[in-house]
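pasting for the record
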Amino acid sequence: MVFSFLFLLFHPFHVSVCEVVYDEETTAIQISQRIFLDDMEDALQLANDDPKFILMKDSAKSHQYLKAYFQGHFKLSLNERSQTYNFLGGEIEDDAIWCYLEITDVKQLESINLTSTLLTEVFDDQKNLVHFKIGGEKKSFILTDTEVRAMYQK
């Protein structure tokens, strides 16, 4: 009984899942990132020297912390040019948070270089899975604290 409770309290692995989709119709790169809620809170507490911070729905402080964290740990370049993305926000769902980012007005896409160090400063066993879904193709990568880049090339 105690073991079951502890298992629910602490998940045994540290993983996030990122999906990068190019929507040719809207000419936008749409990015969704799923992260365990407690892991994201640990990272935000560390990054902001705010040990009691808890992510809250519709909180300006949560949005501010998440946006700043992503800007520091998640970078993209398209067609060999560094890009600024719009951080659209986060949505809490059960034990996870979904974060949404977007780059608009992408008329032509030859390549995407993605660099992610999300949570690697907090957990030495962190794995960040990245899935590119572009033009009917799917390419996947596993990023770690030593392998932080994923690339899609047409």
